[in-house]
Automatic annotation (TrEMBL):
SUPFAM superfamilies: FMN-dependent nitroreductase-like (SSF55469). CDD domains: TdsD-like. Keywords: Oxidoreductase. Residues 44-102 form the Nitroreductase domain. It comes from Tistrella mobilis (strain KA081020-065). This is Nitroreductase. The keyword Oxidoreductase applies.
């Protein structure tokens, strides 16, 4: 096992000059993925907090994160991802519209994040034919966003707990744009500010199933 991650490892750029462990020094080691063999530090450092720092974060601050999505791979370079985002400090009305899409469980904590965002996928090509890989391509884009955010000292928490119908109507999505996930973005905050039943999950080590549970050699079950 290698030594604990440093600011140089995690945030070569750093949002507002801060490395991730500046926001949550006790969590840097706890939340690091126990990867064997080791993986890139930015990948092992990524996780999904619920406690976010109360800071002003603009969409311009997220330009590198959106740029990472821009350069994600997609089938036939169709780039079907769509993001609707709002900063709490610069667009409170837009932020409230996004917050109102959340289901009650996520509404308890997610609106404390500086930025909320809907991740959606355009499902039809200009000629009306379906984009069969739209959801896959969106996932690739958000995956690249999450790594870039970690490099910036920012963190994403992706949520399935939202009302897609409300999102479509409230945010004015066209029929061929499918809402897929809500995302909270910001620097890590203080877990003590979370509702009591969520604090333990915030500070516990992460777990994953073993590789041989999902890697099949040559055929399923192989």
């Amino acid at each position: 096992m290698s030594e604990a991650l440093t600011g140089e490892d995690l945030a070569p750029y750093g949002w507002n000059g801060h490395a991730p462990e500046d926001w949550a020094p006790d969590l840097a080691a706890i939340k690091r993925a126990a990867a064997e063999p080791e993986i890139l530090p930015l990948l092992s450092a990524r996780w999904s907090p619920r406690a976010f720092a109360d800071v002003d974060l603009s969409l311009d601050d997220l330009a590198p994160v959106f740029e990472a999505a821009r350069w994600a791979p997609s089938a036939n370079n169709q780039q079907p991802w769509v993001f609707v985002a709002a900063s709490r400090s610069e667009d409170p009305e837009g932020f409230e519209r996004l917050a109102n899409c959340l289901l009650p469980g996520n509404r308890r904590w997610a609106p404390r994040a500086p930025v909320l965002m809907l991740a959606a996928a355009r499902t039809l090509r200009p000629d009306g034919k379906p984009i069969g890989t739209a959801l896959y391509d969106l996932g690739l884009a958000v995956g690249m966003m999450s790594v870039q955010a970690t490099a910036e000292g920012l963190w994403l928490h992706q949520m399935a707990g939202f009302d897609a119908g409300v999102a479509t109507g409230t945010l004015g999505l066209p029929e061929d744009v499918q809402p897929v996930a809500m995302i909270a973005i910001g620097p890590i905050g203080d877990a003590a500010e979370l509702p009591e039943d969520l604090r333990g999950r915030e500070i516990s080590a992460r777990e994953r199933q073993p590789r041989d549970a999902f890697v099949h050699r040559g055929r399923f079950g192989g």
